[in-house]
Amino acid sequence: MTGKKTDTAAGRYPGYDVLERMDEWDSHTREIVRERLGPFPNRRILTEREWAYLSIIAGHLVYDNRADIIEWIVSHCDRKLADETGEGERKKGVPPEKFLIREGLKAMDHAAQLSYGSEFGALDINQQFQMLADLQMGKAAHIPQWSMVPQKALFNKLVSEMVSAYYSHPTIWSEIGYGGPMYPQIYVRIEEGLTEPWEAGANGK
After folding, report:
1. With contact defined as beta carbons under 8 Å apart, do 140 and 146 qualify?
2. Is residue 54 part of a domain?
3. What dihedral angle (degrees, nearest 10) is formed by the CA atoms of 119, 123, 129, 134?
4. Is the pTM of this model over 0.90?
5. In-domain check, residue 154
6. Mean pLDDT of the chain
7. Would residue 15 count as lying in a domain?
8. Are the C-beta atoms of 1 and 135 separated by less than 8 Å?
9. Residues 99-152: tens digit of each pLDDT
């Protein structure tokens, strides 16, 4: 992990807005993408404290401090944890994601108290970031809770969910030049190494 980004991302394609293509998408796709712009539903399973902690963590992990995007990421996590659908594959010894994240946030508070004398949410930015770096390496302060909540598994789950949500936001699509959903349109020029007329970078966009 590297340092936390503090500036709002400008993007490589300042003149490109993927949402200008919304009329090209089918109605179901448009609705899914619009939901990522907010307003978001009320909290489904996360407590106010858990929501606040995940917002802090998201800001560190995606290196972005824009409130609307952070809110989308945490809303996505809230919805995912409230969903009773199975996870698919899970490594041996790793608890279900709902337990992993919710109990993991509690464990982070205990570890923060032991290391810094304060709860995770009250730490300064550098201390919070260091705690996440320690989790990544499995070196957070030794507490009994880590026997039930594997540190690396907790960190990897947070990264996986938050980064995937981040890169599903249409603002980020525009900034990285992603053209959005391809249905019903498809790429037809990619085999020739060419861009479609509606892609970022085409026609001076």
Report:
1. yes
2. yes
3. -40
4. no
5. yes
6. 86
7. no
8. no
9. 999 999 999 999 999 999 999 999 999 999 999 999 999 999 999 999 999 999
